[in-house]
């Protein structure tokens, strides 16, 4: 029953964005702007408002476990990256950094969680080098682990991992928005460039909803 439900959810997502590591072309997705959000699209019924999957993985920066349950109380973003990606992942990283910069002081009230899709090459050292090159702030968390440790996160967020040893393989390019109550709120198809200012506006919306409660 659980597997059947997961399949239904996956189909409900429609065209999940899959971007080759050598291309930033968007192969589909819901598009930005849902009325509530400027950048993120509306999630299908059954996903919207559902509790975001909990992840407990190693934060490469500190090499200590990060439990996403500890982020409850502030909005955060979830995306999937790998350090050897030549184009799409650096683009997503820069767009997310710029979104945080657009928030100004409010950026301290949100977080970014990137999950590795290449456990073989995304070592703590490689990720820290990537974070430095990307000039990512302290609240940009890049989670790593073994394939066995990461696979549940990939499945929970419908993410396709990078195929080891195949530079032409594809990985899922997407940014999920999680609200301050830890619920799935929206999704951006990130195979093509998106507007960091629009994502910053979406995060302000989530912050305002938190403050209204």
UniProtKB/TrEMBL annotation:
Domain of life: Bacteria
Pfam families, per the entry: SCO1-SenC (PF02630)
Residue intervals of the Thioredoxin domain: 46-208
Residues annotated as signal peptide: 1-19
Gene3D superfamilies noted in UniProt: Glutaredoxin (3.40.30.10)
Keywords: Copper, Signal
PANTHER family named in the record: ELECTRON TRANSPORT PROTIN SCO1/SENC FAMILY MEMBER (PTHR12151), LINALOOL DEHYDRATASE_ISOMERASE DOMAIN-CONTAINING PROTEIN (PTHR12151:SF25)
Name of protein: SCO family protein
């Amino acid at each position: 029953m659980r597997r059947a439900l997961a399949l239904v959810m996956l189909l409900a997502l429609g065209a999940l964005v899959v971007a080759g590591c050598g291309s930033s072309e968007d192969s589909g997705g819901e598009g930005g702007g849902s009325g509530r959000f400027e950048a993120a699209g509306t999630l299908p019924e059954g996903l919207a408002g559902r509790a975001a999957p909990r992840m407990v993985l190693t934060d490469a920066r500190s090499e200590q476990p990060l439990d996403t349950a500890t982020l409850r109380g502030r909005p955060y973003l979830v995306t999937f990256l790998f350090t050897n990606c030549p184009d799409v992942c650096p683009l997503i990283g820069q767009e997310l950094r710029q979104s945080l910069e657009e928030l100004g002081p409010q950026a301290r009230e949100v977080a970014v969680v990137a999950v590795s899709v290449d456990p073989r090459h995304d070592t703590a050292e490689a990720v820290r080098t990537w974070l430095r090159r990307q000039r990512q702030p302290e609240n940009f968390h890049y989670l790593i682990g073994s394939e066995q440790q990461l696979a549940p996160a990939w499945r929970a967020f419908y993410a396709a991992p990078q195929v080891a040893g195949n530079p032409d393989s594809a990985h899922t390019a997407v940014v999920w928005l999680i609200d301050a109550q830890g619920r799935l709120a929206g999704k951006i198809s990130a195979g093509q460039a998106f507007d960091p200012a629009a994502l910053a506006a979406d995060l302000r919306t989530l912050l305002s909803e938190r403050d209204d409660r």
